[in-house]
Amino acid sequence: MSVSPTGHHVLQAPLGPVWRDANIRSGPSLDSPVLRVVPPDAAVGYTAEVWSSGDEVVEDQHPDGVITSSVWFRLSGGGWSSAVNFEPVTVTGLLAHAVGITPRQPGDSA
Fold this sequence. Notes:
The protein is mainly beta.
């Protein structure tokens, strides 16, 4: 993996589909404007061009638990998306320890 001139880490890799509605932003920050919102669709996969550290995002709606990550992907179609928008197993397969997931406890609701 190499580092681009902008300091982002080059990563040409398939991310798969988003698992729930995802905001695609102009940069790796929650303060960056939203360019578009993409719905979950198993037939639509996304590919990363680069990854970068950015704002930490906590997503508590995943069926397996709470996902936390400060990794953001610049998508080949344009824009940035937090790693929490993609399945944790896929993201961890690409970048070990890129996401943390706290499993749901019995009685927790998704």
